[in-house]
From TrEMBL:
It comes from Mucilaginibacter segetis. InterPro entries: CsaA, NA-bd_OB-fold, tRNA-bd_dom, Tyrosine-tRNA_ligase_regulator. Pfam families: tRNA_bind. This is tRNA-binding protein. Residues 8-111 form the TRNA-binding domain.
């Protein structure tokens, strides 16, 4: 594992956001949803997330997640992803979201 210093970590804009909308993403190579997430003063951003194994579309709106908002935009099929949804792979490689257990202001930075 490579060691980084504090200034490297500070460059990552890992922010809290609330999921507003979830839709299917049938054009994706692997099963995924399209998400619209409110990052407060940073605005509403969209991304795709391969989280269909553990989450239904109905249970995601209103949930706060952590996202990296300072990566460049990325084209995924016919969709432009504006941030990275964070999560951990379970024992089968399916993604479990990085979530926030108590409400914080949207746009808050991980410190």
């Amino acid at each position: 594992m490579e060691t980084i210093n504090w200034s490297d970590f500070e460059r990552v804009e890992l922010r809290a956001g609330t999921i507003l909308e979830v839709s299917d993403f049938p054009e994706a190579r692997k099963p995924a949803y399209k998400l619209k997430v409110d990052f407060g003063p940073l605005g509403i951003k969209q991304s795709s997330a391969q989280i269909t194994k553990h989450y239904s579309k109905a249970e995601l709106p209103g949930r706060q997640i952590a996202g990296v908002v300072n990566f460049p935009k990325k084209q995924i099929a016919n969709f432009m992803s504006e941030f990275l949804v964070t999560g951990f792979a379970d024992e089968n490689g399916d993604i479990v979201l990085t979530t926030i257990d108590k409400p914080v202001p949207n746009g808050s930075k991980l410190i």
